[in-house]
Amino acid sequence: MTESSKVDVGGVGLNATDTLIPVAHYPARGSKVEFRSAKVLPGGQVATAMIACQQWGLRTRYVGKVGDDSAASLHRAEFARLGVEAHLFTSPGCPSQQAFILVDDAGERTVLWKRDTRLTLRPEELQREWITESRALHVDGHDTAAAAVAAGWARAAGIPVIADLDEIYPGVEALLKSIDYLITSRDIPGRLMGEPKLRKSLPALRERFGCRLTAATLGEEGVLAWDGAQFHYATAFRVQPVDTTGAGDIFHAGFIYGLLQGWPLRRQLDFACAAAALNCTAIGARGGIQSVEAIERLIATGARHSPILDVTKMA
Q: How far from 84 is each of 54, 63, 80, 141, 251, CA to CA, in Å?
């Protein structure tokens, strides 16, 4: 572990090693499908977001837990290579989190994952300065108790907290009370609020937990956000997808980057959408991370998917 220093963004959450398996199509039950390769690459929601932010010139810190296997060595080497300040706890006799990801010819992925309970990051393992010596905090909520403590420290210090939520973990409501920017997958607002329509569930979610912004990413349909006064909708960019693994992770990284630049919300959402789209043009959660200049070029000249004209009627 390295000595703590002031960074732009800190992250507390998941890392994983992804075995990417390209196939022509998703296997039908009882079938046999040939695969073309099997490539092991680093991933994980918060870990990947920190890598992207670091590559865009931000100073980053990551806090998480690994096993004592070769995957842990891969993570350590990658953080060191890119200059991320990494605080990695080791769980002895335990494998690091792993995922097997089937990627079809349309770029859509199906994830099979396994995480040993011994990899749970505990609140007492955190150090307050890792959180408060940053300009922003990013969490994914998987290790909910530790994430809630970190978010509480950040909130008390006036540091904005961004959350990437793709599942409703036990105890997550305690965490959500300290989240400023809650950006979830499409189904999460409805599951939390018992209301399937985003035009109702996003405002209800914001009001219930006091977030500054609630948003849902919608894949090729873009992203819908509610700021307490109005909806903001950004359309997705058209690219030739190779692998959608990590698109959400990079979207959150793009949002954080724009937030720390002080950009208007619309520009933040456009940058995040463009960064996520470009990441889908290569294999792996981090395979398509492009430069800020390349992302800006896509925003300026890239084609977009057709917009949903009336966002108030979105499901």
A: 7, 10, 6, 21, 19
What's the average model confidence in pLDDT over 108-129?
A: 96
Read off the tokens for 284: 């792996």
Provide CB contacts within 8 A for 23, sequence distance 6+.
Answer: 33, 34, 35, 36, 102, 103, 104, 105
List the end-to-end C-alpha distance of the chain, in Å, as a whole number: 45
pLDDT at 4 over 90: no
Q: Residues 238-268: pLDDT tens digits?
A: 999 999 999 999 999 999 999 999 999 999 9
Query: What contacts 75, CB < 8 A, 6 or more positions away?
Result: 15, 17, 42, 47, 66, 86, 88, 96
Q: Are 288 and 281 in contact (CB under 8 A)?
A: yes
Taking the C-alpha atoms of residue 220 and residue 290, their distance in angstroms, rounded to an integer, is: 19
User: With contact defined as beta carbons under 8 Å apart, do 20 and 254 qualify?
Assistant: no
User: What average pLDDT does the segment 120-128 reach?
Assistant: 98
Locus of tokens 């090693």: 17
What is the Cα–Cα distance from 163 to 184, expressed in whole angstroms? Answer: 8
